[in-house]
Amino acid sequence: MTEQQILDHISRGDETALDYLYKKYYPMMTKMVLKNNGTVEEANDVYQDALIVFWQKAISGDLKITSKISTYLYSICKNCWLKELNRKKRLSYTEQEGSIVQSDPEDIMSKVVKEAMEVLGDPCKSVLTFYYFNEMSMSEIADRMNYSNADTVKAKKYKCKKRLDVLIKKKYTQEDFFN
Fold first, then answer.
1. Do domains 3-91 and 105-176 have the same CATH topology?
2. Which CATH class, in words, describes the domain spanning 105-176?
3. pTM for the structure as a whole
4. FRET pair for 109, CA 20 to 30 Å: which of 5, 9, 40, 138?
5. What tens digit of pLDDT does each residue of 56-67 get?
């Protein structure tokens, strides 16, 4: 469907244009939300809200598009997601055992990694902790853990990181971890 055909369908109240837009741009909008600390469910909600806003503006005649429909929808999604993040930030302070705790996406990711590292156990936990968190060199880790040399540590770190990736990806979907 061309952009003009989409707008024509919408102006007639034909919801096939809405279905078309939903399917065509869903992956792009979902990726934007996921890359910005959102979940698949939140991405669905945001995209549906954006499509409703788009539909209402198009039906009312207030729609002034100076770019592609995809760009326009993306900006609506982005604005909706920013509003949602601000709302979540305001609500993220929760009372827990008499103290105030703030939920931070980095804290959540850190928790996921720490849980997976506990499952890994030693020596992987130690090698990865020394390298990533303590920022030790391969030689320092080899000395500390009695490995023969830095190359042995490097190989061990690689294998351990692969195991960690597998553990995390078993628990979470691929979409939760866009690079």
1. no
2. mainly alpha
3. 0.49
4. 138
5. 888 887 777 788
